[in-house]
Structure prediction request, 392 residues.
Amino acid sequence: MLSKLDVYCSNRCNGCQWKGKSADLKSHRDHCDHELVQCTHEGCLEAPIIRRNLAYHVANCPFKSCECQYCRKLVPGCKLKEHEHDCPKRPIKCPQHCAAQVTVETLAHHLKQACPYTVVQCPFVSHGCDVDKVQRLELEVHLRDAMATHLELLCKKVEQQSVVITQQQTLIKKLFQRTHIVVDANGKGAFTKISDAVQAAEDNDVIFVNQGVFRESLVINKPLTLQAAADNQVLIENGSDSNVIVIRSTCKLIGLHLHQRSKNFFCVRIIVNDDETIIEKCDVKSDHFSCIQIDSGCNPLIRNNKIHDSKQCGILIKKNGKGRIDNNDIHSNSLSNIYVDANANPLVTNNKIHNSAQHGIWIKQFGVGLFENNTIYNNTCPTSKSKKERCQ
Prediction:
């Protein structure tokens, strides 16, 4: 029944005079010239428009798609001017006023590779030519006129390179030849004294020492390795009133027996400020001062050693010294097995520390460090309360 009722168009307020059956209202509104509709252009924010005015609006809408005259891309009309100004295909003149017609996107390449007015270097500048600023259009003339000069420069460069190559070849050959230096007390090596081998060695050489007793005092002042050959027992005792070994440069001591017999000296004193010096698999003993002293700023790796029977400390870490002390057997020293001075900061791990006549580890006031997984036993501590608190 409702479909047969007479109704007016809902766009009557916009001027539509249509009147008809309710069943025909939807069909009418789909084509009603007074219906409010939206602009079909993407981005247009215009309020809904009466359908009879839509065609005019669409034709003049600022968001109507327009073709860029340079790249042929469709962009909204309101943004066309901005787009064409920045369009990479827009033709422009070379800013250096050559005759070339380029585009925005090819300008940089043109200036770098083609423009005759771009200032460039002569390609022989790296070989010694002093013409480092010349316009590209003049470069060809320069190359032609200076051909003899350039050839002379190239010859000198080749000669210099030949000298460098020869030096490098000599060095490589020398490195292969100097795989190691052998010290043998019975004359079966290149040297009979370790100190002579150290003096003759070059940086990073390896000195192998055959079995024997060597009464010498050594100063290591260049990077090298001093190692007992195979399982040979090598004993180095100080040959005068001095330390057995003073380490002033990065080095490795491996598999040696070191014994300090003089008063008022250390067995090994480490002075070099680095993280690469290593003392490994050595037996270190001292009849007087500490077996090993680590000076301020030094951070050696001391591992898998026996450090014992000093009349003072096993390892003495001086003020601001460090050290990585790992898996050593440190025992039977008359004072502390390990002494940590003020502001020293060692890493002490996995060691056996025992049978000291005083302390296992003594840490002076303001001394710090990390101590983990050490076995500390049979060390005799004084009864003073303040000292007991520092004894471990």
Observations:
- Residues 382-392 have pLDDT under 50 and may be disordered.
- DSSP finds eight helices and 34 strands in the chain.
